[in-house]
Design brief:
Length: 299
């Protein structure tokens, strides 16, 4: 069953900007989105992990989505991350985000609880039944503990609005397993920055990226080389990029990405607790990586 959407290319997982008092800074968030659009990104993910989804109220989430829609209009697909503790909460968020004008969802398993196969499939089916918009299922078992296996996606293959898989297990063997089990039933996106090039080679036609937020031009250069089959050029950029791409698989990825963005002139390092900005040697080591990359960026 072919997908009814044309999601492809690089979709930044965009940070949410805050004022010093931790209130939403919507103008700065919009400014960052405008900059990303200007560099030719293919879609937007708002309120994913990097967007600090779980640190915002539902009312705040709607405000971020409405502000983003003001900027992007219909230029690119706008997807809303859904990461809730309950299935009912995920349905409520989906309905509110749809009313705010999003084009689809990046849906995570229910947070905290380690659901089994039957429960996981039920969660995705129930949220899909609550909205007519297309859904990307986000699989990241190292972080969210629930592994959405190829067999589970086979269980959901009859749900027409579940159209895409964001695969972030970190084991690229899973990508081939998905294609072997499911053929072209789902669009498959790479969901982890430091396996992105391999993932394109294995058939992924999209990439949810974090470090694109700080280096959108270079990110696009690597993507274009990869999809053109210029693996020598793609690998050259990938090797330059990799020290920063490893930030995406770190528990403090939000702080690392925001630090990189701030260093490159996009927003601030401010995060909401329980996260705290990086300090001391940890911050200096990350800054050295970013500054070295900025000084040696590919042309």
């Amino acid at each position: 069953m072919p997908s009814k959407v044309d999601w492809h290319g690089v979709f930044p997982a965009v940070p949410t900007q805050f004022h010093d008092d931790f209130s939403l800074d919507l103008p700065s968030t919009q400014k960052h989105v405008e900059a990303l659009l200007g560099e030719g990104i293919h879609g937007l993910i708002m309120l994913g992990t990097i967007g600090e989804n779980c640190s915002l109220s539902l009312d705040e989430k709607v405000k971020v989505l409405e502000a983003t829609k003001e900027v992007c209009g219909d230029q690119v697909p706008l997807l809303n991350g859904i990461a809730e503790f309950t299935t009912a909460g995920a349905c409520e968020t989906a309905r509110a985000a749809a009313a705010a004008g999003v084009d689809g969802f990046m849906l995570m398993p229910a947070m905290v609880y380690n659901a089994d196969r039957r429960e996981t499939v039920n969660h995705f089916r129930t949220v899909a039944a609550a909205t007519d918009l297309p859904i990307m299922c986000y699989n990241n078992p190292p972080v969210y503990r629930v592994d959405i296996t190829p067999e589970m996606f086979e269980d959901m293959a009859d749900v027409e609005t579940i159209v895409c898989i964001k695969e972030a297990a970190g084991d690229t063997r899973r990508i081939t397993d998905l294609f072997n089990k499911l053929g072209d039933r789902y669009i498959i996106f790479s969901g982890l920055d430091d396996v992105a090039l391999e993932s394109v080679m294995l058939g992924c036609t999209g990439w949810i990226s974090g470090l694109v937020d700080a280096f959108p031009k270079e990110n696009r250069m690597m993507w274009d080389a990869a999809v053109a089959g210029d693996w020598k050029r793609g690998l050259e950029i990938y090797r330059w990029y990799m020290p920063m791409l490893h930030f995406d698989s770190h528990p403090k990825l939000v702080q690392y990405v925001k630090l990189a963005c701030a260093e490159m002139g996009y927003g601030t390092e401010t995060v909401r607790a329980p996260r705290l900005p990086l300090v001391g040697e940890e911050r200096e080591a990350a800054l050295e990586i970013v500054r070295t990359a900025a000084a040696t960026r590919p042309t």
